[in-house]
Amino acid sequence: MTAGVSAEAATPSSPDTARLIEAVRQLRAQIARRVVGQDAVVEEILMALVAGGHALLVGVPGLAKTLMIRSVADAMQLVFRRIQFTPDLVPSDITGTEILEESASGHRAFRFVQGPVFANIVLADEINRAPPRTQAALLEAMQEHSVTAAGQTMRLPEPFFVLATQNPIEQEGTYPLPEAQLDRFLFDIRVGYPNEADEVSILRATTGTATGAITPVFTGEDALALQRAVRALPCSELLLQYAARLVRASRPQDGQGPALVRQYVRWGAGPRAGQALILGAKASALLAGRGAVSPADIRRVAMPVLRHRILTNFAAEADGVSSEPIVEALLAHVAPPSSGLGG
Per-residue pLDDT tens for 270-285? Predict the structure, then answer.
């Protein structure tokens, strides 16, 4: 039913898309029954989902990263799998393996047993705990939406969405993701501490007898239809140019960026960052019920899109400068368009 939203009809004013946006509103309400606060984080997870991308959640232990992801999965009628990354994890633990079976008649044959990556939502918990070879097995599936094993290429179910978590403070014995693999994540989402009122609510909700039961309100067909609607949303040529200028200004070799870029950046963001800015901005506009992208949408997603794609140098490390103030400097330096924004 909802999977039939056409590109022509995929605007917030169409009945089908309006119904899907209402389903997203119900999805938020269901997640809020279990997750207190963290509204911006949940919103960015939903943006990544409807944009058809993957997300990396970074935060210290105890901030409900895993609970948020599980709650999103519980509120959707999708297959969910969790993979706990550990140093002894091997690629076949993720993708699957061949086993030798013997029938009652004595005939032996190999059968491929699918791994946990064959799901709609995959939680890669503490992805930096596994060695690079194992990380690469998951990241190949993220890029290609397929797995090659036992001489066959098998498509993964659609929608396919990977949410990975990472602890930013406990780095001993970890394998940090290479920059080229980080670039595969549409968003790098930072999960911070809750405010005092939310923390009191968390204590109240989690130390009593009440359980945050969640009712599924969203299907895989809904997610695919919204992904099509996101791509069909109009974005003006001026906004495409604005996104390109933001990305290009992050490159010190370009010479057009702010002083922080020239001083602290080793490598700026690549073209995939521009694609992520536009898709993320389209998702932001659609979930807000608007029919076209605005500069505010691009600025809204600039931090989760760019923070993991800007590589700082040794001077930045010595001065304690992360990529986040550099993204803020880019937003202040590159002026958004003020007219001609029609799709």
Answer: 999 999 999 999 999 9
What sections of 148-212 are H helices per DSSP?
Answer: 179-182, 196-206
What type of residue sits at position 242? Y
What does the DSSP 8-state code read for residue 157? Answer: P
pLDDT digits (tens, 9 = 90+) for 9-59: 345 656 677 888 888 888 888 888 888 888 899 999 999 999 999 999 998
Under 8 Å between Cβ of 249 and 334: yes
Q: Mind listing the pLDDT tens digit for each residue in 110-133?
A: 788 888 999 999 999 999 888 888
Asked, as a colleague might, if the bond just before 159 is cis with ω within 30 of 0, I would say yes
Sign of CA dihedral 25, 30, 36, 40: negative
What domains sit in the chain, N to C, each tagged with a CATH number? Answer: 1-87+120-232 (3.40.50.300), 234-343 (1.10.8.80)
Nearest to 287 by CA among 29, 3, 6, 25: 25
